[in-house]
Write a structure and sequence with these properties.
Chain lengths: ~170, ~100
């Protein structure tokens, strides 16, 4: 049952992402991407990662995508301000390139002997993740917290009002 | 759950290629950033499925770290988007083609 569910969720995720990258209106694109992230979070849960699944919804869908939505709405990016869609001469070669890249990657993955082996039943309680995160990987946590601090300072500096001569 | 490891990796590869296509194809800066987000999510799918395949905790730890890094990256990138909008009143990537010292 869970096996079938995994493939259905993967199909939903890929379809939502495909719809997302083809929308003209950025708001619609973000909403489709949130739908895709919900499916991805459920895939994480099926793969035995309940903490990552919860954080995928809280952090990605709840915080990051809402931040995107907030910026899009703050700048008032109406769909007519996005450029005309490129003709098939422009996107045809790109889609061909991406499709051939994907076929090559999947063929490479399938050649590996590990590819045919099945993922066994696995469930990792959030407690084990937390113990590893703040035990063995505590240095990485510190580095990420420094990075968040630098990002805050950078966002503050970029968000200052423009000085004279900087604007158009 | 009885999924071959290769199928989980193939889903991640398809997601990554979709994100790459979005980055290459779209001309609006916001959509390029969304493509980067899609690629990062493909990476976290690989981490989680590898964690389940080898029955180890490390993959999930790195997914948590990846989310924090993504939050930092998005904060700076969206501040840049607001800055670019203030400067040129457009977000089409082709318009940003001049340097002024």
């Amino acid at each position: 049952m869970t096996t079938v569910l995994f493939y259905i969720l993967g199909f939903i995720m890929l379809t939502a992402t495909l719809l997302c990258i083809t929308r003209r209106n950025p708001v619609h694109a973000v909403i489709y991407l949130v739908a895709g992230f919900f499916a991805l979070a459920l895939m994480f849960y099926l793969l035995g990662a309940p903490l990552a699944a919860a954080w995928q919804i809280i952090v990605y869908a709840g915080a990051i995508m809402v931040l995107f939505l907030f910026i899009i709405m703050m700048l008032g990016l109406a769909p007519q301000e996005t450029p005309e869609g490129p003709g098939w001469r422009r996107w045809g070669p790109l889609v061909l390139l991406s499709a051939s890249l994907m076929v090559c990657t999947v063929l490479l993955i399938m050649q590996d002997p590990a590819a045919g082996k099945e993922i066994g039943d696995f469930y990792l309680a959030p407690q084990a993740v937390g113990e590893s995160l703040f035990g063995r990987y505590v240095l990485a946590v510190e580095m990420v917290s420094f990075q968040l601090l630098f990002a805050t300072i950078g966002a503050y500096l970029l968000g200052r009002p423009l000085s004279k001569g900087e604007g158009q | 759950m009885m999924i071959p490891f290769g199928h989980a990796l193939s889903f991640a590869a398809a997601l990554f290629v979709l994100g790459l296509t979005c980055v290459l194809l779209r001309r609006q800066v916001i959509m390029i950033l969304i493509g980067v987000e899609i690629m990062l999510n493909a990476a976290s799918l690989v981490f989680v499925s590898a964690s389940a395949y080898w029955q180890q905790v490390d993959g999930q730890v790195f997914v948590i770290l990846l989310m924090a890094i993504t939050a930092a990256e998005v904060a700076v990138a969206l501040a840049m988007v607001v800055y670019l909008w203030r400067r040129k009143r457009t977000l089409v990537a082709d318009e940003f083609n001049g340097m002024s010292g």
